[in-house]
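Homework help board

Subject: predicted structure for assignment chain

Our instructor gave us this sequence and asked us to write out the predicted structure in token form, then describe one feature. I got the tokens but I'm not sure how to describe them. Can anyone check?
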Amino acid sequence: MNPQSSPTQTLRMSHSKLERLTDFLALEEPLEIRLEYSQDGTRKEKSISITMRTPGNDEELAVGFLFTEGILRHPENILSVSGCGPLAGSHQGQNIIKVRLHEKTEILWPKLERHFYATSSCGVCGKASLDALEVQGIRPIDRNRFKIASPIIETLAPKMREHQSVFEQTGGLHASALFNFQGELIELREDVGRHNALDKLIGSKFIKGQTPLKDSLLFLSGRASFELIQKAVVAGIPFVAAVGAPSSLAVDLARKFGVTLLGFVRENRFNIYHGEWRIIGS
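My token output:
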């Protein structure tokens, strides 16, 4: 059985007839992210966040979260990432991830407050204010580096769907995917939470030392919210395309940092909200 899904008995009504069948649901369980660091010669431990997520790629999720929230800047700062605490959850995995930092790591604590509990889709609900969201030191993205042809963009949604194995089984997961300028899939992650899927994706690249992602297009299975664009900006992603609509704040952020932002990407059409200069043929 896929560790990211769980079977359940359900009834289906079809043509006024009831049918009993086994359905598969996307798993959703809490994950606590803890940070162990040194301060004034003493090792300390801090609970950073609790989020509802789909189990799997938890180390990437924790590291991606710390990176895109502005707490970490370099993968070499990480001593280890591991599960800790007792086994928990229906998947028999560990729902606590501890990120241990090297002694001399300087933590860039962001000027924000986040409630320890966040739903899988809450986005910015736990942030103290919109003003606190901008991670300091992030510059606008190079305008001329990444370009992609319009016909290639129109092929990305079906390509991503082909690789959404858990969504195909459950119909209940979001996805974030990276593509190159030729429309080739680089990497994909799924989760019940939109921001979790993106943290897993960015975290996988950060751990490998492959950020900033200057030569990548980020494709989102749902809408483009402010927080998702913020994470893309931190990771240096120049181009974001979404199946759904962007929010007004997402468009504002894309304009401020020079990110190309597309919405309603379908076969043969899409809306350009900013950055048409990165689209060949526009």
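Reply (TA_rk): Your tokens look well-formed. For the description, you could write something like this. The two ends are 46 Å apart (CA to CA). That's the kind of observation they're looking for.
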